[in-house]
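Reader question, answered in our methods column.
A reader sent in the components of a multi-part assembly and asked whether the whole thing could be modeled at once rather than chain by chain. We filled in our standard form and ran it. Here is what they sent:
COMPLEX SIZE: two components
ENTRIES:
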Amino acid sequence: MIGNDLLALSIADLQPLLRRREVSPREVIDGLRERIEVIDGNLGAYLSLDVEAAIKEAERANVDLPLGGIPIAIKDIINVMSQPCTCASKILNGYRAPYDATVIQKLRAAGAIPFGKTNLDEFAMGSSTENSALKSTRNPWDLSRVPGGSSGGSATAVAVGEAFGALGSDTGGSIRQPAALCGVVGLKPTYGRVSRFGLVAFASSLDQVGPVTKTVRDAALILNAIGGHDPQDSISLNEPVPDYLAELGNDLRGVRLGVPKEYMIEGIDPQVRAAIDAAVKQLNSLGAEIVEVSLPSTEYAIAVYYIIATAEASANLARFDGVRYGYRAENPKDVLDLYGRTREEGFGPEVKRRIILGTYVLSSGYYDAYYLRAQKVRELIRQDFARVFQNVDALISPTSPVAAFKLGERSADPLQMYLADIFTIAANLAGICGISIPCGFAELNGHRLPIGLQLLGKPLDEARILQIAHAYEQSTDWHKARPPIASNAPRL
Amino acid sequence: MAGNSDLDVAYVARLARINLTKDEAEIFQKQLDDVLRYVEKLREVDVTGIDVAAHALPVVFRDDAPRDWFTAEQALGNAPRQANGLFVVPKVVE
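And here is the structure of the entire assembly that came back:
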């Protein structure tokens, strides 16, 4: 059985132990299972765990493959064959996936073992994981606070050593923001870099799948495995996948980084601002040139997002009607009653709100004023990025304007919750890539709460933001810090 | 019962096939009125001459070629009600 030291390892540090046969894939699964049994009751990162299936795979794992014998936790909105895929919604009660998502097939081909389905905001709609209809997830650094969202279960699991790495999905920040709030690395690849076939669709012009990991190198390892063209996702890019490990270790001489002046807004927590300022200095001292840039359409990003994302969600979620899968209302008197009550009883409040808003902005008489106008402003946001990327290699900002907030603090006011997504949303609207890495801590009521640094890169330039993130990470100790609940975890 | 915007939550919920309780409709009306008031700021943007891209990157089509996929049993495997290889729903046409 493996203990706390081994569970704290990165994927890259676990691999040599597996390859030298010092630890077996089976022992790794057993170690994770024990960790989850001991501490997940307090954290709520996982919705389901198929231990038997994972053990079977571990026993025939080829540890010499790129991710051989490495268990990866999967956000419960990605289909894994024969396992539940709840989307943290009652409406998918009883559903079992009849197929593997393309990213799961690719992970398996690289030798990885999908292990455990992690909690999320229902259908990935939220920034705190509080919208899960099934379970409450807590921030491992302070159990009275949220882990961020929507991939809050994946970020929590990685932060506490309940997983060596995880997959999340990012529609407006849902990988990067929970990674920031839990003190881990989260990468949103370029729109089209990673297949979404088998990811339950939320907003199809924005959704991307990506890794949540302990280190930048691990994020590159997973992207190597899951990136690439898939004819089954119509927006998948048919572009070669470089070796994302190749640029790691290169220094930052000649790298130009932009600080968007519109991102240095009122409302950024002073401790977050101080951490970002220090990170900018650190990147500068590593050789990067820092310049101020302007993204003038920034202030419209949230408004654009909540029109486009809800419009697309209203169409995508029409398929949950109680006919083909999942929950169905009892004794419907006719087919409209079947639809209306199934969706009333099956969807939680945030999902209903977004479907209603999305239906409204697409409806006759309002389409031009809301949806079409939002699409046009989205184009301006995309042009902002295209313009600044002519002069800089990447942009720097906070991932979230605040560290983890209290459970319940924002859930009563949807608009306040939406406004916290200010720094992450534009990357999805523009289709560019982004990463969040740990860059310090805020001290609040005796708890240390992680702060995330966001780097945004050009389309398909993941290698560059990984290189910059890696150089920063290796020059600091932030990524080595683990929440007390992980380092003090008792044995069974 | 419309609030400060043109949005009538109860009406749009019917279009979206979601039954709402009266209480839920009232709460959503207030919350979505707030959101719609916030997105009003898009009216101040000059969008003349902007070409709309539905996606940030171009769409790529694949060949429409037949391939192996679910069997009928697999496709019906998650249905709440099924019989004779079909999904069962309440009577639609009298």
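What stands out: Chain B has a mean pLDDT of 88. Chain B is about 30% helix and 5% strand.
Send us your own complexes using the same form.
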